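Backbone shape codes:
===
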Amino acid sequence: MQDDIQNEQLTVTYFTHGLQHTIQGKKTAKGYRFNGSSNKIINLATLNWPPYISEELCNKGWVFQFTVAILVSKGYQVNIHFYPWARSVMLVEKGQMDILFPEYFIESSAPSDIVLGKKRRELLVLSNKFSGGELSLLKRPDYSFDLQENLGNLTGKIIGVVRGYQNTPEFDAVMDSKQFSIVEAVDELQLVKLLVAKRVDLIIGDPKVFTYSINYSSLSNRNKQALLNGIEIVQPALKYNHLYFAISHSYPQWSQLLADVNLALLEFQQSGESDRFIKVGSGCTLDL
């Protein structure tokens, strides 16, 4: 079984200047590797976050495919490692890996939980943005709650958050001032379970990720449906969050890497490649 995992073959296809490029990758002990002949080696830390990126998706998700294409188009060897998000943050902020993705925008004032006394933006530099998704509060259908614009009625609530996530500057400021209590979870599926079990009043995240995390879980269909029926999006959404690559300042050529990533993002946007990756999506259908 281990040999099957190590020999897993992956294909990423992208277009530049009207030419099709197909890259074969494989899972190794050092992550999912593409363009292995290049000596410009990049190690990336990420998380399972369907439908954007996940080892459970048939092609690992559009953000996985997009990231491989962006970096390989500039000649880099790509090694993508999946971890719980808090560990991914730690590895990149400590300089043990080179890129953290997909990341939300990081405010210049945001402190690092990993390197005490440092701001996150002292440890990481953000690429230009690419497409992301909505960030919303979710509640139980029988829980009466209307969101106030200034978030004032979050005071005294118990809210579930994923450990290590940025949310919105406004929400995180209220959270840091301890106006409400938080319960930390390792991922979105655990958050939904906390909400449905009435351990928390609200949870925060991308609604698409909550839905996909339930559908791609190992739960029975009956339990999946119970969780799906047990959550409701609070309107309006808090924010549309773009996604970013966060590059470690510890990477020796971080400035060149940043320039290469930003140029590739621009080229893919102008050529329509970015939209094509999103349209193709995970390339998977749910079997429920």
